[in-house]
Amino acid sequence: MGMSNTSGEYQFRQKHLLGLSEYSREDILFVLEQAKYFREILDRPVPKVPTLRDKTIVNLFYENSTRTRLSFELAQKRMGADVVNFSSGSSSTKKGESLKDTIRNISSMKIDMVVVRHESPGVPHFLTQCVDAAILNAGDGAHEHPTQALLDMFTMQTTYPDLKGKKIAIIGDISHSRVVRSNIIGLKKLGAEVVLCGPKTLMPVFVNDMGVNVSYDLEETLEWCDIAMALRIQLERQGKGTEFFPSLREYHERFGIKRTHLEKYPDFKIMHPGPINRGVEMESEVADSERAVILDQVTNGVAVRMAILYLLSGGTRI
After folding, report:
1. What pTM does this model have?
2. CATH of domain 146-294
């Protein structure tokens, strides 16, 4: 791939994964390179490797996210770590215990790593000041979701090993998505071009500061792009006095990827961070087509999380 980090000079020096804004282009490419090794392990008859056998990891989920939590947990178990799951719904946070108290209790347990998801931006950074452990951000508010962006880029690399100059369209609910922010940061560092496409009402104020183009025309966007990533329309936000478009049917009409698009624009690949609302972000036939790499994203997510857990636990180049 012509990566500079294959030379002996590069060293991965990150202690945490709080967001991709703190990672250099070389750091990102290095993590993705290590993920290839773990992706191969997942295809073995016994997909395990004992690289984290002496490590204790706490999964601290203050916000629901079954898919991300299970992916992290699977990655940890595949590597032989001791895993402690903590979800606020069943814990003493319901009784008013503060985040800091919970962290103090956890840090007295001699843990090595904390994977945290929280609705408030900045919580992962706050944890680095409270706990002597590697902190991995599994999503903080609408701020960042770095492992999702890493797995998206890893999936893109399977089609385009070098993302420089590649045209990536991100379509849908831009304003409520932390995936977008991390993806924009990562993709720009790897030299990709990014266009955000969706209704005006779902475009956040910050888009103008992020160095990306914006389109309100799906046809134009699909004709342009190499990869189209559709984001989940958050149905729970609809119908609660916060309607961002007249109806789901109209959204699908204007911004849903359809079978006719596959015929009209024969090259672009389709991605989606899941879960898909079939018939809203895309037709079922599109989600199930050869052009979609959505199921690959799920497997790749485990490999990428194995790679970053390995590197932040003190592992060196594989």
Report:
1. 0.92
2. 3.40.50.1370
